[in-house]
Amino acid sequence: MSRSASFRSFLLGPILAFGPLAANEVAPAAAPAAPAAAHAEHSDAPVSPAQALQRLVDGNARFASGHAEHPNQTVARRVEVAAGQKPFAVVLTCADSRVAPELYFDQGVGDIFVIRVAGHTLNDHVIGSIEYAVEHLHAAVVVVVGHEKCGAVAAALSSERGEGKIGTLLEAIRPAVRDTRNQAGDKTDNAVRGHARRTAKLIPASSPIVKNAISAGHVKIFAARYDLVSGKVDLLP
Ligand SMILES: [Zn+2]
How far away, in angstroms, is 109 Cα from ligand 1 center? Predict the structure, then answer.
């Protein structure tokens, strides 16, 4: 099974049981004088978690295959979202210069609410940012994306303390290093996967707002891993 296929097959899971967002969600007004596009521009209508995830899956497939469409990056789109944002997804990922979510998910202005910090570690500011996007912007999925050859995770595998404030980053990653220490295979990659999964679990555990949104079926959280060479994002079971 290809990674793309495994990513898609994940969609057949229980998330499809979730319905659309609450009926009191209001679709925004149409974009002002949006020019006809050669490809389908995204609508900002409310989406279910399954629809939101599918949008990311489709965008990643375009990017990975070299057929990115760069949607929602027109002047008209800028004007449209200046009046208010309704991103359909939150992406928490590393600050690494090679892993920009707007690129690898082929999304445009106002589409995804991105939080980036080295090693995608959690703190109150990060959790508060996720809460804001879920509670007030009604994003339907939160995806924590680790990546191949993450320098922060690799440093956490070492015994180095980390100079300056770097040490606090490494300490936030080390629980996942300990969790995956005895797994077979590449230790860094095992820790990358373990840290993404652990981070995804910690978000609702740290936030009643996010936990309640999950319980209500308004949002789903996923862990994933980005491959630097293939450009593919795999959801982690
Ligand atoms: Zn990284």
Answer: 23
Q: Which are the contacts of 210, defined by CB distance < 8 A and separation ≥ 6?
A: 127, 130, 131, 134, 142, 203, 204, 219, 221
CA 80 / ligand 1 centre spacing (Å)? 33
Distance 173 CA to ligand 1 centre (A): 11
CA 99 – ligand 1 centroid, Å: 8
| pTM (two decimals) | 0.83
Q: Is the Cβ–Cβ distance between 126 and 92 less than 8 Å?
A: yes
Classify the C-alpha dihedral 213-216-218-219 as positive or negative.
Answer: positive
Tens-place pLDDT, residues 19-31: 333 333 333 444 4
d(CA 209, CA 128): 10
Give the torsion through C-alpha atoms of 97, 98, 102, 103, to 10 deg: 140
- Cα separation, 122 vs 204, in Å, equals 12
State the sign of the Cα–Cα–Cα–Cα dihedral 44, 48, 53, 59.
negative
State which fold the 3-16+46-148+206-230 domain adopts.
Answer: Beta-carbonic Anhydrase; Chain A (3.40.1050)
